[in-house]
Design a protein that fits this description.
By secondary structure, this protein is an alpha+beta fold. It folds into three domains: about 70 residues, RNA polymerase II/Efflux pump adaptor protein, barrel-sandwich hybrid domain (OB fold (Dihydrolipoamide Acetyltransferase, E2P), Beta Barrel), CATH 2.40.50.100; about 55 residues, Dihydrolipoamide Transferase, CATH 4.10.320; about 230 residues, Chloramphenicol Acetyltransferase (2-Layer Sandwich), CATH 3.30.559. Helix content is about 30%, strand content about 25%.
Length: about 400
């Protein structure tokens, strides 16, 4: 039997959690087939087998494993099963009809969602009376029955459940508390009129997408504005290390993304050197990887400044927490048409509140406010981000 062990993942990673087996014990595994999924402090990683053979589990789902720990064993002497047409079992099983899930009641009628729940949970519905049209069993009827109310009436459940926190969620929790407890965090606010940005997007979005193959989103404008402002206010792009201040001559912007397993912050490297389409392509690539849990440790390690967008969830205002060891984070929020005073008149404009949380130990009020005002200026007149070139030259490479 050949042992498969947890591989070395990164310098700072000493332990992983076995999040999920992708195969069943006793299965014949092919070489390079993914057999399980590991969860580290920073990312979720697929673990492929280096050998072919029959698998025997050593670790179980939820186990915390040190680097080098045995995960499973592979019997390389086992013969590979003959390749059989795989779809056959599926063909013999078209039992999506609800009566197959409840043989005691062959005339059972249920809504599609209820029928799927009955089949998945193997619910015996012989005692359930449907509350839907023509006596159909509804989703609520099934839930009520499963909670002990066979009459179909809504149940006042007081059930609780207990589930171990994932390693990623534990790491997020620890780092958030550490950030609150170890920095002199303060938040300053401003608001920005996005009329000019929205106008530019409307004017150029079709040509931009045709030219570059990606959409022209708000994130590229905010990233570009922050990259410029960070070079003008270098303290915001620095951090404290012991008794020293580490300053960066480059801008690596972390973009906070809500992934299936928790919050992750992939990084746009050298954002100060990227064109608008370069930023959009980087954002799209990282967002897709985050959605599919495919981000690597390297893609989330480092970063000199963070942008988080609570507006996509409807947030109007928040005080984001600094992403250590960085010294500042910009919070974007929901764009909402609001009345503002402009040239002595009340007009309706698309407005967004901005929040900059910063470490007051390194960044003074003058620098934090100046940085946020500069970001506001660039967004309200985005042609300032384009230096001496025309908008056509920058957005469409003309």
């Amino acid at each position: 039997m050949t042992e498969l062990k947890v591989p070395s993942i990164g310098e700072s990673i000493n332990e992983v959690t076995l999040a999920e087996w992708k195969v069943a014990e006793g299965d014949y595994i092919k070489r390079d087939q993914v057999i399980c999924e590991f969860e580290s402090e920073k990312a979720t990683l697929d673990f492929p087998s280096d050998f072919a053979g029959t698998i025997t589990f050593v670790a179980t789902e939820g186990d915390d494993l040190e680097i080098g720990a045995v995960v499973c064993k592979i019997d390389e002497t086992a013969e590979a099963p003959a390749e059989v047409a795989a779809p056959k079992p599926a063909k013999e099983e078209p039992k999506t009809e609800t009566k197959a899930a409840a043989p005691a009641n062959p005339d059972l009628k249920a809504t599609p969602v209820a029928a799927q729940m009955i089949e998945d949970k193997k619910v015996d519905t012989s005692g359930v009376s449907g509350s839907g049209a023509n006596g159909k069993i509804t989703k609520n009827d099934v839930l009520a029955f499963m909670n002990g109310s066979a009459s179909g009436a809504a149940a006042f459940s007081r059930a609780t459940s207990r589930k171990k926190m994932s390693k990623l969620r534990r790491t997020i929790s620890r780092r958030l508390v550490e950030s609150k407890n170890t920095t002199a965090m303060l938040t300053t606010f401003n608001e920005v009129d996005l009329t000019a940005v929205k106008s530019l997007r409307t004017q150029y979005k079709e040509a931009f997408k045709e030219k570059h193959g990606v959409g022209l989103g708000f994130m590229s404008f905010f990233t570009r504005a922050c990259a410029i402002a960070l070079q003008e206010y270098p303290k915001v792009n620095s951090y404290i290390d012991g008794d020293e201040i580490i300053s960066h001559e480059f801008v690596d912007i972390s973009i906070a993304v809500s992934a299936p397993k928790g919050l992750v912050v992939p990084i746009i490297r050298n954002a100060e050197s990227l064109t608008m389409d370069g930023i959009e392509k980087a954002v799209k690539t990282l967002a897709l990887k985050a959605r599919d849990n495919k981000l690597t440790i390297e893609e989330m390690t480092g970063g000199t400044f963070t942008i988080t967008n609570g507006g996509v969830f409807g947030s109007m205002l928040s005080t984001p927490i600094i992403n250590l060891p960085q010294s500042a984070i910009l919070g974007m929020h929901k764009i909402e048409d609001r009345p503002i005073a402009l040239d002595g008149k009340v007009v309706i404009r698309p407005m967004m509140y901005l929040a900059l949380s910063y470490d007051h130990r390194i960044i003074d009020g003058k620098e934090s406010v100046g940085f946020l005002v500069r970001v506001k200026e660039l967004l309200e007149d985005p042609t300032k981000m384009i230096a001496a070139k025309s908008v056509d030259e920058v957005l469409l490479d003309l």
